[in-house]
Amino acid sequence: IPKVDFDRIRKDFTVLDQQVNGHPLVYLDNAASSQMPVSVADRLDAYHRNEHANVHRGIHTLSQKATDAFEMTRRKVQQFIGASSSDEIVFTTGTTDSLNLAANSYGMENLQKGDEIILSEMEHHANIVPWQMVAQKTGAVIRVIPVLDNGELDMQAYKELLGPRTKIVSVIHVSNALGTVNPVKEITALAHEHHAVVVIDGAQSVPHQPVDVQDIDCDFFTFSSHKMCGPTGFGILYGKKHLLDKMPPYRGGGDMIDKVSFEETTYNVVPFRFEAGTPPIAAGIGLGAAIDYLNEIGMEQIANREYELVDYAVSRLREIEGLQMIGESSNRASVCSFVFDDIHASDLGTILDKRGIAVRTGHHCAQPILRRFNVPATTRASVSFYNTTEDIDRLVDGIHYAKSFFE
Ligand code: PMP
Fold it and tell me: Which phi and psi angles does 147 have, rounded to 5°?
């Protein structure tokens, strides 16, 4: 495998080349949103300057060109995640939207009173609340896979939760709060033994490792463009074709119909049935450019590079007296979450920001797992392939400074 020059790659991210509060920016909030390389920003700019038109409906040349560029993203996504057909790629506005679509369309259609939905204790709120709302309407019951002290799923407990009433298992691939990489292939195989449908929240996995939905064999898979070098406002719901075909639309409007009259409306084919109204065209084309960019580096290379960075971060953070890691799994991607007994996360985050270091503090939209670890908030540093070991050193120096400040 040819060695990738990550120093050169870092230069593609012009946003990193700036001072924040008088210090060179250290960006370690990639789990919230990753940065965008120049090629993606240029692609957006070219679209807005020269190619903007509405898609799917236009007979004129500009509209057809916009449609071709936009639909090309569907094929790029299909290949990127190993789906068998581009019809299985539904465009949404993000992971949250994708999960709401799965819950409201598949869930509302297939759940009955007493049916069970299995989630895990480490879910993001986006993979809890939509299911709760659907459970309230259908009378379905939510069961929760507990998390072990090291931040991994209790797989034994999961096996015991599975049963004849299990209809849906919806779990996070990589935890945005702990960094744990979950065994989604095994989780899926076990669920399928009980004829349950599996939804995977891949918001934190797709940006960091190769993903093959056919290998995992999950039924639905969701992720967001803005965490994988693409623009905000765009996301994906992958669904197996035979399931999508049977699902009712979630939103009504233009583009998602076949024929409309006041007496009766028939719906468009999959995936367009789920894409009412004018989509975020520019963002979709931007995601296509982001996928090209990631493919050029190679997801294996990205995973290896980030593995080294995370490994370095974990070992350097562990040297700091009083620092307690939340989530100790050795199977970890991008995220290091930690707390101090005597320094509040938001104070630490503020002091780090004064030194140009961007981290996330708070509950990371995953309150149940923070409650599980008895902490109200953590400080979260999350790396991407364009980070460096110097970035980690700056973080560690910043934490030492904050500690001396509070002592
Ligand atoms: N799931 C996970 C694991 C996430 O990290 C996030 C983003 N924080 C989401 C879902 C929600 O993604 P979005 O805000 O892009 O809809």
Answer: -110, 135
